[in-house]
Amino acid sequence: MEFIENQYLDEIRSTIRARKVPWEGYVRAELLNAEQASLFKTLEKYPVAEWVKPVSENLQQYVSTTMALLSPPSRDDVVRYIALFVGDVITTIPEFTTELLADSRCWPALTALLTKPDEQITILTTRVLAVLANSQIAPVDVIAELVAFLGDKFLTSPNTNLQDIAVQELALLAQTKFYRPVIWEKRSVILPQIIQLAQSPQFGLQVQYYSLLLIWLISYDRTIAKGCISEYNSAQTLLETAKISVKEKIVRVSVATLANYVRFSPHSAIPAIISQRGLQIVNLLSERKWADDELRQDVETLKQQLTDAYNSMTTFDEYYAELKTKRLLWSPTHRSATFWKTYIEEFRSQDWAVLKQLVQLLQTSEEPVTQAVACNDIACIVNTAPQSVTVLNKLGAKIKIMELMNSADPEVRYEALKATQALIGHMFAS
């Protein structure tokens, strides 16, 4: 991926090209000298496709003049033109890119433009930085500044065009393995938004695809793969996306990311995928006809891996895997009196460690289904092991459960009432 495809960006570039820069006036105002003005005025005689010859013949002059006009930046209209010029030639004239990157002023001058209030300048600059960083390893501080800008300014913007640009440029950066940890450092801003954009085509098929592509690229880092699973429950997003999408390329990248999770972080990935009914979804995917050979192979491999793991898991293993995803779903296990009697010692062991995790989930989750299931589970534990009431009281579980009795969700209210009755009924048995 070398170019950023976005109509809004294309319109900005066309608008800047259509405006004539008053080079002679700037020379008279001593904003630049006649030689600098002449270099860029010459280009106005040619379409962009024919810039290769004049730029190549005066390569060093164009590079030095570009840096001179950006260090420090001149007028905004000149900066827009120079940023547009650089963006055009770095994708068509490799020698220019080499000379530009050899200039010590390059990275500082470009990153300084990110502080400009002019949106067109920052849009053009992020594109230039992303493409340059893709062609040569950039300093970590430059990538950190670019990633932070894309996350804070573009990705969270209500302007969907800026979101699209940010996702594409982050995916371009993520092609380089050295940049993936830098992106991960900014995960608190980037990942929630990327996962939201990946979940639905309502933001645009292109945005969805590049969001998924970004997740796939960073999943090649073992630490990041594990974090995507444990911190953001991204396995659920990928499974649901693969299940409902009618676009093969969307399914392809979703399944490929799940395959990476299993490959690089199997102990986290396999239980998480199974707990989100991943085996059933993968079985459905295996029944569909796919044109892509790699997709078919990934689906079959994933199906076999999940089947083998599922056959070796106990019911408690499944429960604990689901708990670790921080998202509970109704299943026969949660309603089974036999399950609670059989595995109550697993909850009691290590000073009620699993029960404490369940309470923590109840206290932090805002999902009604998770809240309802957690209340149900706590009631079942109390009814099976009344001694747990003491632990629950110390953890403040009763307060949270009573708060949920006023929930807007009727199922949450019902399950919270049941849990409260169990706690009160066994209060003196603890």
At a glance:
The protein is an all-alpha fold and 430 residues long. It has helices spanning 7-18, 23-28, 34-43, 52-57, 59-70, 76-89, 94-102, 106-112, 119-135, 140-155, 160-174, 180-185, 187-199, 205-218, 222-232, 234-244, 248-264, 266-275, 278-286, 293-312, 315-324, 332-335, 337-364, 368-384, 388-394, 397-404, 410-425. α18 packs across α21.
Keywords:
430 residues; mainly alpha; Leucine-rich Repeat Variant; Serine Threonine Protein Phosphatase 5, Tetratricopeptide repeat; elongated
Sequence-ordered SSE layout with sheet pairings:
Layout: H1 7-18, H2 23-28, H3 34-43, H4 52-57, H5 59-70, H6 76-89, H7 94-102, H8 106-112, H9 119-135, H10 140-155, H11 160-174, H12 180-185, H13 187-199, H14 205-218, H15 222-232, H16 234-244, H17 248-264, H18 266-275, H19 278-286, H20 293-312, H21 315-324, H22 332-335, H23 337-364, H24 368-384, H25 388-394, H26 397-404, H27 410-425
Task: Tell me what you see in this structure.
This protein has 430 residues and is mostly helical. It folds into 2 domains: 7-264, Leucine-rich Repeat Variant (Alpha Horseshoe); 316-427, V-type ATPase, subunit H, C-terminal domain (Serine Threonine Protein Phosphatase 5, Tetratricopeptide repeat). It contains 27 helices and no strands. Helix 13 packs across helix 14 and helix 23 (337-364) packs across helix 24 (368-384).
Query: Whole-number radius of gyration?
Result: 28 Å
Which architecture name of the largest domain does CATH use?
Alpha Horseshoe
CATH topology (fold) name of the largest domain: Leucine-rich Repeat Variant
Query: Total helix count?
Result: 27
InterPro entries: ARM-like, ARM-type_fold, ATPase_V1-cplx_hsu, ATPase_V1-cplx_hsu_C, ATPase_V1-cplx_hsu_C_sf
Family: Belongs to the V-ATPase H subunit family.
GO molecular function, one term: proton-transporting ATPase activity, rotational mechanism
Protein name: V-type proton ATPase subunit H
